[in-house]
Amino acid sequence: PLWLLHGEALYASQGWRELRVLSLEIVRVFGNAPNVDVISEVWQAVAEAKLNRRESALAAAGKAKALPLEDAPLALRLAGWLDEAGLSEAALALLRGAEAALSDSIVYWSQRFLAAAWASEVDDMLESSRRALALGPKDPRAANNRAAALIFARRSLAEAVQLTFENVARFPANKTYAVNHAMALVENERLVEARQVLSGIAEGTAKDRLEANRRLAWVLLLAREGKKAEALERAGAMDRSQLAPLQAARLDELVRKLRRR
At how many degrees (to 10) do helices 36-50 and 16-30 cross? Predict the structure, then answer.
């Protein structure tokens, strides 16, 4: 329908106020159409989040995740919007509802991994990354996500470093894979190798979440090397908003331990 295309166009152009208005209008005009109620709540949640109205965004997202969505491909798109807006719990709820229709899709499991990671749902994160890698055993992104899940959960760390090693061997210029490999090396106490990898990624060459992960890897490495002052200095300069909640919690835990030493 044209109203759905209009909503997607507003999202693409970042017309958040117009998207919020449209989210209310479609219920008034097309209230009996399939999935209108959940689409309306998702659009409203995303618009409110982008307008920095967090409480209103969470309220709308809470309503959205309680509503059924019968269109699985649409659920995938809307979950992506929610996740990008920082509403990962609602995104994960929509994705769980689409599992039966999309269980053979590597794109689905990869997106569900991200939503689960940012919603701090460790078991779902691990299972989603496992399913994606099973569907695409040679897919570097699936391998990277699986390694990240294992690192997040601090499980099967030897498997994690093997996956990241294979990725950097195949794609030596990819900074995302290099940072994840450094993380895996640190977790496996291979500190000299981790330092070599991180030293090859110049500051400022990575952005946003990738840059936050690069900085976190340095803090973890310095702490393992016993360089308390430098680790604390770097930790204090980090932007935690770009870390997944599990990562931010781990960083805070590490800082507390370092300060007690």
Answer: 160
CB neighbour burial string for 127-145, b if at least 16 within 10 angstroms, e if fewer: bbbbbbbebbeeebbbbbb
C-alpha 36: how far from chain center: 27
Q: Of the candidates 164, 195, 199, 166, which has an alpha carbon nearest to the alpha carbon of residue 181?
A: 164
Q: What is the pLDDT of residues 39-96, one digit of tens each?
A: 999 999 999 999 999 999 999 999 998 888 888 999 999 999 999 999 999 999 999 9
Q: Please, how many CA atoms are within 13 Å of residue 253, restricted to the half-sphere of its CB?
A: 7
Residue 88 identity (one-letter amino acid): S
Q: Is 79 helix (H, G, I), strand (E, B) or coil?
A: helix
**Sequence-distant (≥ 6) Cβ neighbours of residue 23 within 8 angstroms:** 7, 39, 40, 41, 43, 44, 47
The angle formed by the CA atoms of residues 63, 66 and 68, to the nearest 5 degrees, is: 115
What's the token pair of residue 33?
């159409």
Distance CA 92, CA 53 (A): 21
CB contact at 8 A, 101 and 127: no
Alpha helices in the chain (DSSP H): 2-12, 16-30, 36-50, 54-65, 72-84, 88-97, 99-102, 106-118, 122-135, 140-153, 157-170, 175-187, 191-199, 208-224, 228-236, 245-260
Longest alpha-carbon distance in the chain: 63
pTM score, whole prediction = 0.89
Contacts of 183 (CB under 8 A, 6+ apart): 148, 151, 164, 213, 216, 217, 220
